Amino acid sequence: MSTDDPAEASAAYEPEHNAPAPIRWLSRVEIWTGTVFFGLLFLGVMYQVLGRYVPQIAWVGAGEVARLSMVALTFVMAGYLIGKNGHIVIEVFDSVLQGKKLFVALRVFAAVVMVLTCGALAWESLLMIEQGWRRVSTVLHMPLAVLYIFALIGFTSGIIHSIAKIAAAGRPEAKLDISEMEG
C-alpha cells in the first residue's frame, strides 16, 4: 500500500485496522446492542422521573426496564471491553516489558486467563439459563433466563475477543482511550 497522505498511512497501521474483519464486525454489533440498552436505560429512568411529577403516567415497569437494561448492557459489553482493553489491566508490566519477548508471553498469558474466566462464566450462564425460566421479574414478568442469555452472549464474545488477542499477541494492541472522559 502506497500513499502520500501520512495520516492515511498511519491509520492503516492502527490496531483497529489490523483486527480481523469478524472481530471488527462483532465489535460493531456489540456497540450497537450496547447503545440500544443504554437508550432503554435512559428512557426508563427519564420515564420514572416524569412519573414523579405527573403521577397519572407513572408506571412501575419503567424502573424495571431501566434495571434490566443496565444488567443486559453490562453483560453485552463485556466482550467488547475485553477486546479493547477496557477491563482492569496491570499496565505496569506493559511499560516495563514493552519490546521484549516476555511481553508477548505476558499478553498470551493474560488472554488465556480471560479465555478460561469467560469460559467458566459462559458455562455458568448456560446453567442459569436452564434454571431461569421459572423465575420472572416482578413487574414485567420477564423470565430471568433472558438476562442470562445476555450474559452467555457477552462472555462468549469475551472468549472470541481473547482468542483473537492470543493470535495477535505480537502486534500492536488497541487501547481504550478514556482520556476524553476524565475531568
Report on this model:
This protein has helices at 6-12, 15-18, 21-53, 61-83, 91-97, 101-131, 145-167. Helices cover 70% and strands 0% of the residues. It has seven helices and no strands. Helix 3 packs antiparallel against helix 4 (61-83) and helix 4 (61-83) packs parallel to helix 7. The protein is an all-alpha fold and 183 residues long. The protein starts with 5 loop residues before the first helix and ends in a 16-residue tail after the last helix. It comes from Conyzicola nivalis.
Keywords:
183 residues, mainly alpha, 7 helices, transmembrane, transport, cell inner membrane
Order of helices and strands: HHHHHHH
How many whole angstroms does the radius of gyration measure? 20 Å
Give the tally of structural domains. Answer: 1
Instruction: Give the rounded overall mean pLDDT.
Output: 84
Number of strands: 0
User: Poorly predicted ranges (pLDDT <50, ≥5 residues)?
Assistant: 6-14
Q: Report the sheet with the most strands, covering strand number, pairing sense and barrel closure.
A: none
Helix content: 55-70%
Tell me, what's the shape?
A: elongated
Percent of residues in beta strands? Answer: under 5%
Tell me the distance between the termini: 40 Å
Q: What structural class do you assign from the helix and strand content?
A: mainly alpha
| Structure annotation, total helices | 7
Transmembrane segments: 31-50, 57-82, 102-123, 144-164
Main location: membrane
Organism: Conyzicola nivalis
Domain Tripartite ATP-independent periplasmic transporters DctQ component: 42-167
